[in-house]
Amino acid sequence: MPAAAPPASASRTGLVLTGGGARAAYQVGVLEAIADLRRACNAHRDPNPFPILAGTSAGAINAAALASGADDFDHAVRNMARVWGHFESQQVYRTDPISMLRSGAHWLTLLSLGWALARWRYTRPRSLLDNTPLAHLLHDMVPLARLPMLLERGHLQGLAVTASSYTSGEHITFFDAAQELQPWVRWQRRAVHSRITHQHLLASSAIPFVFPATAIRMGGHTRYFGDGSMRQTAPVAPAIHLGAERILVIGAGHMQETQKDDPQAPMTAGYPPLAQIAGHALSGIFLDALPVDLERLQRINTTLSLIPPEARRASSLRPVQLLLISPSQRLDGLAVRHVARLPVPVRALLGALGVSASSRDPRNAVLASYLLFERPYTHELMALGRADALAQRAQICAFFGWRDPQQDEAPTRPPRPSS
Questions:
Q1: For residues 312, 318, 319 and 323, what is the CA-based torsion angle, rounded to 10 degrees?
Q2: How far is Cα of residue 91 from the mean position of the Cα atoms in its chain?
Q3: Of 130, 86, 89, which is closest to residue 368 (Cα–Cα)?
C-alpha cells in the first residue's frame, strides 16, 4: 500500500542527476546509501526525500525511475540497484556482430574510404551503436504511466528531463509539475511543459555520435534531439525553477578529472588515438558544466547573504542550499580494469579507435567508461557511490535535518577540570 503524502516541509527538496552513460551507476550507489541513512535516522515516515527531480542523459533515466516510484523511495532505489547491478551492454545497445557491422563498421568504412562511399545514402551511418535495446529496457525500468497519479497525490512535485535539439540548436528542458508553472526562457535554453515519455529519456541519453538522435513532436513539428549534456550551461537550474530550495547534486565524474590527479599515469608521447580524443570530448560534455554552475550558485548565495532582508524579499533571487556528492576518484581509472569485459564485437570496434584491453593508461579508457554497461564495472561504481555518500554521512543528515543516532551515541570528551 502506498505511503501517505509527504509533509509540506519536505516538498522543496530537489535532486539533480547529471549525465555520463554507464557512469550513472555511481548515482545508484549514492541513493542506496541515502536510503540506508534514512532508515537509520528513523526518517522513513517521509516516503520521498526528493519530490523535485531533474536529470540529464543517463541521470534523466535515473531521475525518471525515482519519480515513477515517488510513493515508495526505498522500493524505487532497490529496483534501480537491481537493474544496474545486473547490467550487460547488450541491454543498452546491440552487441552482436551483425548489428555492429550495420552501425559501427559504416563509420570505420567512411573513415578509411571517405567521400567515395559517402555519396551513397545507404552508407551514411546514424550512430556508432544501435541503442534499440535501451528503449525496451526503459519500458520495464521506468513506469512513467504512474506519474500523473503521483503528481496529483502530492508524492511528486516535479520532474525535469533535458535534451539538446539538433534541429534548432536549443537546449530544451521538458518538465511536468503538480502546480501550474510558467515555462522559463533563457539564452539558448528554454523549458517546455510536457508529459514525460520514454522518447524524452531516449533523447536526453543519446550520446552524440555514439547513439542515434531521437525524434520528438514539439510545436506541431518533428524535431531531433540528442544528449542533454551538450551545450548545458546550468544543470542545476531546472530543479530551482521547479521550486527547490535545497538541492542534492550527484555527479558522474571526479570534479577535477585531469592528468595531474593521477601522477602515476604514463605521459606518453606521440599523437593521441581517436579514443583518447573522443573521451576528452565526452568528458567536456558531461563533466565541465556542473562545477561552473555550482560556483555561480555559491556566489549568488554569498551575495544574497550580504543584502538586507527587506531588499532580499523584493528580489526574485533566493538562496539555495546545496550539497554535492561526486566520485572521489577518476572513473576512467576504474574502467581501464574492465575494458576486457566488453563483448568481443564492441572491443573490436573500440579497438579500431584506440581502446586497448591491455593498456593501463586511463586516458585511453575514458570513452569506454561511458559505454561499459557490464556488471563488474557497474558494481564497482555503485560501491564507490555508497562509500562516498557514507563518508559524507554528517553532511547528508544535516542537509535533510535528520537526527543521526550514530552521532548521538558518539562518546563525548569529559570536561577539562578547572584549575
A1: 180
A2: 18
A3: 89
Q: What is the CA radius of gyration of the chain?
A: 22
Which residues fall within 8 angstroms of residue 96, CB to CB, at 6 or more apart? 90, 345
pLDDT at residue 345, as a whole number: 84
Sign of CA dihedral 140, 141, 145, 146: positive
Closest of 336, 333, 328 to residue 385, by C-alpha: 328
From CA 415, how far away is CA 241, in angstroms rounded? 48
Written as one string, the DSSP assignment of 64-110 is HHHHHTTT-HHHHHHHHHHHHHT--GGGTS--SHHHHHHTHHHHHHH
DSSP-derived secondary structure for 208-255: TTTS--EEEEETTEEEEEEETTTT-S-TTHHHHHTT-SEEEEE-SS-T
What residues in the chain have per-residue pLDDT under 70?
Answer: 1-11, 100-125, 255-269, 408-419
pTM flag (> 0.85): yes
Q: Is there a contact between 225 and 213 (Cβ–Cβ < 8 Å)?
A: yes
Give the sign of the dihedral formed by CA 379, CA 331, CA 344, CA 207.
positive
The span from the CA of 192 to the CA of 321, in Å, is: 26
Distance (Å) of CA 72 to CA 56, 75, 149, 150: 23, 5, 13, 11
pLDDT for the residue numbered 9? 45
Q: What are phi and psi of 313, to 5 degrees?
A: -65, -25
Rounded-to-integer distance, Cα 386 and Cα 60, Å: 20
- What's the confidence (pLDDT) of residue 360? 75
pLDDT for res 2: 44
Reading the block at residue 302, the C-alpha cell is 554569498
Alpha-carbon separation of residue 13 from 37, 48, 191, 266, 408 (angstroms): 17, 10, 20, 43, 25
The pLDDT of residue 419 is 39
Helix (H) or strand (E) holding 16: strand 13-17
Residue 122 to residue 416: CA distance in whole angstroms: 82
DSSP 311-371: HHHTSS----EEEEE--SS-HHHHHTTTGGGS-HHHHHHHHHHT--TT---GGGGHHHHHH
Helices and strands (H, E) in the chain, number of each type: 19, 10
